[in-house]
Amino acid sequence: MAEQAPAAPTTAGGDPLRLMAVHAHPDDESSKGAATTARYAAEGVEVLVVTCTGGERGDILNPSFGEAPGTPEEMAALRRDEMAAAAAALGVRQHWLGFVDSGLPEGDPLPPLPEGCFGLVPLEEAAAPLVELVREFRPHVITTYDPSGGYPHPDHIKCHDVSFEAFAAAGDPERYVVDGGAPAWTPSKLYYNHDFSMNRIRAVHEACVAAGIESPFGEWVERREAREIPEREVTTRIEIAGFTDQRDAALRAHATQIDPAGFFFAIPRDFELEVWPWEEYELAESRVRVDRADGEYETDLFAGLRPGDAA
Ligand SMILES: [Zn+2]
């Protein structure tokens, strides 16, 4: 007899738990919070990755990839296939918002952003499709980046802006009114991804040095310390043991972007899990009561929502 699948986890009210992870480009979902999404999907939570842009302006960042596609359309098509493979590896669904990659402006002075790109779309227009998607998917928890983008790419900053706006506005039936659109939905918690915190990078770097493992973070530590980026608060640590294989498979699926011999795979996984067995988050907004003592971490993005949690 076939084994019964475990019942899907629910809220105290019996609603199946839903998690929406909003990202700027295809591949961001695999480098930030990836094992978390795989873990919740395995638990039976409905997980939807949202990708704001098509990644059309990404360069080939993997030296072993071979020849670059000739046109932006070919690049976009390639990245769609990569994204589908990454979502399959994580066991999640994925949705494109359909905006155009702004590219990372470089130079001094910085060049203007290309016309029509995500970074230049006015907030109300840029947030509208995400508000609609929040009303359709009805997530209890949304993850995104902090207001700085976590990394100074215009699309990462815009990703924060539209996520924050959707979290604030999706539950208000007077805002973003669409004829025949889904009814308003109020998500309960909003988190920021913090997988590239200085605390993590320094801890892993120092552990590598102490163990005689070549650290991929040496230059990074120096560069980041020089920029003096203030460290943001981490409130939540999700344990990822058992889910790093899926994360790695998702990363490798982005073959144009991720070098299988590079940075992301430089540290032996067992060692990494000993030093830093979490993905970290900052609880930015919550509409449910969260009981977290100072200096302690939440260990579940759905804390406060599960049966038995205080309402
Ligand atoms: Zn990105």
Oligomer: single chain
Helix content: 25-40%
SSE sequence, one letter per element: EHHEHEHEHEHHEHHE
Fold-level CATH name of the largest domain: Rossmann fold
* Largest sheet geometry: 7 strands, mixed
CATH superfamily of the largest domain: LmbE-like
EC number: 3.5.1.115
Cofactor: Zn(2+)
Binding site for Zn(2+): 25, 28, 156
Pfam family, one: PIG-L
Can you walk me through this structure?
- The chain folds into two domains: 18-197 and 233-286, Rossmann fold (3-Layer(aba) Sandwich), CATH 3.40.50.10320; 198-231, no CATH class.
- 34% of the residues lie in helices and 14% in strands.
- The chain has nine helices and seven strands.
- It has helices spanning 28-31, 34-43, 72-90, 123-137, 154-169, 198-211, 218-227, 244-253, 269-275, and strands at residues 18-23, 46-53, 93-99, 141-144, 189-193, 236-239, 278-286.
- Strands 3-2-1-4-5-7-6 form a seven-stranded mixed sheet, sandwiched between helices.
- α3 runs antiparallel to α8 (244-253), α4 (123-137) packs across α5 and α6 packs antiparallel against α7 (218-227).
- The longest helix has 19 residues, at 72-90.
- It is globular and about 50 Å long.
- Zinc ion binds at residues 24-25, 28, 153, 156.
- Zinc ion (ZN) is lined by residues 24-25, 28, 153, 156.
- Pfam families: PIG-L (PF02585).
- Keywords: Hydrolase, Metal-binding, Zinc.
- It catalyses: mycothiol S-conjugate + H2O = an N-acetyl-L-cysteine-S-conjugate + 1D-myo-inositol 2-amino-2-deoxy-alpha-D-glucopyranoside.
- Its cofactor is Zn(2+).
